[in-house]
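Quick start: read one record
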Amino acid sequence: MLLDRFPRVALAHRPTPLEALPRLSDRLGGPRILVKRDDCTGLAGGGNKSRQLEYLLGDALSQGADTLITHGAIQSNHVRQTAAAAAKLGLRCRLILERRTDHGDPAYLQSGNVLMDYLLGAEIAAILPRGADMAAATIALGDECRRAGGKPYIIPGGAASALGALGYVDCAGELAGQADRAGLTIDHVILASGSGGTHAGLVAGFHAIEPRIAVTGFSVGVGTNQHDHVLSLARDTWSLIGGAGTVGSGEVRVSDVAAGAGYGMPGETTIEAIRLVARCEGIMLDPVYTGKAMAGLMAMIGEGLFTPDETVVFIHTGGLPSLFAYKYLFGDEQAGGSALT
């Protein structure tokens, strides 16, 4: 499993920390919980997409691209990190955003990730209604760019491709090495599962180095066959790196227990998980991805699905900027403290 043959651009701070969460573990009465701090990758606030973009932008530069084109929801972490990568490399960045939720709060529409998109110098070419064909829109934008003499490189939503997933094949090896040096045996890996590239890359990576590790992704949306989507992407990733055989269906574990009403719409368990982790460990989760994944992990612990001596690693995929876009969820927090004057 050699990744050196793929062009790669250094964007992320690596390795990211692997930290124990003893107060959270004690509070939940569950297994040993550690967190892989991929919120600390550094690029414009960090997050998982920085690892995936390293390979995609390596490919883009090898093709002589001068413009990055991608799409995502208004509060997309992927879009923000793509805009940051473009700024870092001196490329133009053109974005298509989707109104994937019905949120009308000005904070959701103007702050958080979308504010950072503007600050990073990206051009928001269009904001489309929920359900629009975003892939077709990016292709059309690419055609427009070529007609104007540009050299576009289209990045799929969420950087979810076999090439992008290599970032988390690499992360699986990084994580295994950290655990080995710390004398730990990882039994379970937990993460949010959305566009699927992070999930698929971890599945393919652990398939190569330690297939017994159970990788469980908590779906952040409803109405899609997330298992089959991630499995297909994991198999494509495995094929890309030249692996023998294939990834088994049982190696992809998906739960929708924390999906709430859909993408960008957290349930009460997600809000509770964000508060609990903040107050136990001083770590901030977000309402779209990591909060849902933590709510799912808490549900698994509540169901007694782990033994006390097992070790669970939670992949913190970032998303802090979007927390500010959801301030209406936490309006009672300030009411309980001293007013700022």
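The first strand starts at residue 18 and ends at 20.
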